[in-house]
Amino acid sequence: MLGGAVLLGVVLATLAIVQWAGDTDQAPFEPGSAADVIGAVGRAGLQVCSVRDEPDPLARQATSSSTVRISTDCAAPTPQASPAAAPRRTSDDATAVIDRYATAADRDAVARELTARIRPRGSGVVYTWRDMTVLVRGDADDTVRERLESVLRGSGAV
Fold this sequence. Notes:
Layout: H1 2-22, H2 34-43, E1 47-54, E2 62-71, E3 93-101, H3 104-117, E4 124-129, E5 132-137, H4 142-154
Antiparallel strand pairs: 1-2, 2-3, 3-5, 4-5
Helix pairs in contact: 2-4
């Protein structure tokens, strides 16, 4: 009987933590563009190695999507990269996927879904900023991710 009460308490506490973790605030919804994120990359002292507009966004609610490869030095190849490999990947790069939405409800729903998908921690991070979600993939270099996060948060990203 006591074991059942303890188990019930643990389950309720876990549910409360999950509910609390899922109730994150989102950034104010206002017009933005991938160029805003690219500008933030420059303010963070980082370089944009490539930008690719995606013709078919993965998030079905997205109105547009871009993939941006970011680095501290786009010209520095990884030791294991072959000279013929394209695009060249550096030892300190990150990939950010920027999706834009027509409504705050669409943006916020996708942000919640992406946040649930990228668990456990270290698998990536999702920001809401203006009318966008910015997904920085989990294989991002810590230096790049931390610099980008600082500038995005300073610009109002959540």
